[in-house]
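task queued by scheduler; priority normal; single chain, no ligands, no partner chains; default sampling; output format set to structure tokens
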Amino acid sequence: MPFCRHQCDYCAFATWTDRDHLIEQYMGACRAHAERLAPGLASVGTVFVGGGTPSRVAPDLLLAVPAALPVAADAEVTVECNPEDLDEARAHAYAAGGVTRISLGVQSLVPHVLAALGRQHPREAVAPAVAAARSAGLDVNLDVIYGGAGESVADWTTTVEGVLALEPDHVSAYALTVEGGTPLARDRARHPADDDQADKYEVVARRLEAAGFEWYEISNWARPGHRCRHNLLYWSMGEYVAIGCAAHGHRDGVRSWTYPKIESYVRAVEEGRDPVAGSERLDPDQRVLEGLQLSLRTEAGVPAAALAPDDRAVVADLVEDDGDRLVLTRAGRLLANEVAMRLRVPL
């Protein structure tokens, strides 16, 4: 869903603030695309509606897209929302349409940090949004970002404690990254510092894990039974289809991506063409190596044979080694790339 009321300074996704007049036409194209894909899908186990801002789109238009697919009765269906958009009426409309999970873009609960990130919702909007989701029986994920300009460790601790007070089912905590072409990239004075972000990761990891959340991927924690099944599909090299502009799919060993612009995507669908703009097929060794790199990010880790003995010695402080599997320690999560670059396809 590429529509936004306001574009955040750090965002490099394919989003627009001046295309709301295309919403109905775009949603019609997404539904038509879903209808074409449906016959080739036995069953859909997870749906993730991301953005942009999916909550900019009326629930009936949004829900018509997964309704065109063979979605399993026990499927996990997630919709991303801005806190200021989610009230009880919208939450109940989502639930009635099969949504099971809401992901709220909280980012921070400290006003000056929200301003530095270019976020426009007030912190006071978050608790009512969580309550609205709960009133409809929906699981709640809270997305937060650390490393914004002017954010102290105390500010970040305030956000983490505030998130815990809201009693979510799942928390995604991401380090602020600088993406080329964004206002943040052009303002070097606001670029995050690695050591500062490492300190803040330690804060969120310690506090969430002490509160009973299970760490299961570098940036993700969940209460027992509430892990995001859709994201687990990505990290396990599973298969998924792409619907909408700038969406990515993975099927039969081929990765593909759709046209990045709204107009190009809509035109292709309306003309009966495949809106896929490009694709790539990995060779078997590439697939295995990429699978290892993704698995390393998770609590599953990788087979011990994925690191040569000499490399295993070099990163010994970054992994737990039971002789069979290697799993990143908390310190290792901060330096995951140091381990990932040494992975090899087991002999």
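post-processing summary
- The chain has two domains: 20-235, 284-340.
- Residues 284-340 form one domain.
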